[in-house]
Amino acid sequence: MYNDLFTSLVTYISSSKSHNDTLRASVLLALLSTYNKHESANPYQNRLRDFINEDVMQKIIECVGTVARSSRDTYTAIQDDHVEGLLGGVSKMVGGYVPFGLAARLGLSGSKTPTPPPVEDIDEALGKLFYYLPRNISDSRPDPDTAILLMVYEFCHTNKAFSLVFIRSKQSSGNETPFGLYLSLASYLTTQQSRALRATLYARLTLLNLRNLIDDPSLMALLVHEDTKSQIRICRQRQPFLPAVTKERKLLEGILDVCIAGIDHNLRRRLDVEFYSLLLFVPRNLIEDFSWLLFPKSFIITGV
User: What is the per-residue pLDDT for 83?
Assistant: First the structure.
């Protein structure tokens, strides 16, 4: 910590031409800013707090959107949950008794893109997707590039300007903004978090960041603003399925869907209390914030 690399890393990010260069420098900056930050004064935390260069912020945010999209693709490569075929819809109506691979074998999946090899059991396939091989980290899932979520958390936690730019950032392609892609990846992480330790840690990190964002009134106002609306693809790989919404919607709606998906798909006898506390904190705070619209003035929410 004697040699301050912050200026060098920021300069490297601002001059980088490739996504991988921005990603590596951002992850390194995140690791440096988290080193012993609770035991001693970390100079990188102060530098992040005072940082105001929006051009560099935008480059990092675009990198986050790219990583979120590619990491989400590793999930949808196993099971495309976006387009429903005929048998896919029937299987949902009868509780999922029609195997997922059957529609793909009959060519009724409804997808215009080449379908992956059919599988009879999507749970087994996803289990293989998250299988961790210590000798080859590239075979682990979520994608190793997902480590940039640590940078998102550190920047949002220490620098409100970054959070504002992140939420306001517009889509570079299609109808998904970087923050919309971030929420989309969060839904896949929370839905599948019990399958791998890395997925669990990233899911908790994302929920902690969302918790910090909704605690700020000005950021909350942006999350419900019309100008920040985005298309948000929510994970629908496990039952019960959330409704498929393809139109643009407010970011706060996506945050609620992320929490609902996590609550629905991680119930078990040995409940992960810490994880569920994070999931329930977000809707609880939202109810408190908007209780003056939903309940009489004398109603006060307590608990949790």
Answer: 56
Residues 301/284, Cβ–Cβ less than 8 Å: yes
Residue-level pLDDT at 255: 94
Token pair for 297: 């003035």
Q: Which residues is 230 bridged to in the sheet?
A: 249
Residue 249's SS3 state is: strand
- Residue 24 is predicted with a pLDDT of 93
Q: Where are the beta strands (DSSP E) in 21-156?
A: none
Give the 3-state DSSP-derived string for the chain, with helices as H, strands as E and coil as C: CCCCCHHHHHHHHHHCCCHHHHHHHHHHHHHHHHCCCCCCCCHHHHHHHCCCCHHHHHHHHHHHHHHHHHHHHHHHCCCCCCCCCHHHHHHHHCCCCCCHHHHHHCCCCCCCCCCCCCCCCHHHHHHHHCCCCCCCHHHCCCCHHHHHHHHHHHHHHHCHHHHHHHHHCCCCCCCCCHHHHHHHHHHHHHHCHHHCHHHHHHHHHHHHHHHHHHCCHHHHHHHCCHHHCECCCCCCCCCCCCCCCCCCECHHHHHHHHHHHHHHCCCCCCCCHHHHHHHHHHHHHHHHHCHHHHCCCCCCCCCC
Return the ∠ at Cα 156 (arms to 154 and 160), rounded to 5°.
Answer: 130
pTM of the complete model beyond 0.90: no
Spans of the chain, pLDDT less than 50 = 85-140, 292-293, 296, 298-304
**Burial readout 113-150 (b: 16 or more C-beta within 10 A, e: otherwise):** eebeeebeebeebbeebbeeeeeeeeebbbbbbbbbbb
Q: Which two tokens stand for residue 56?
A: 């560099």
> Tokens 């087994």 identify what position?
124
Report how far residue 245's alpha carbon sits from residue 248's, in angstroms, rounded to the nearest whole number. 8
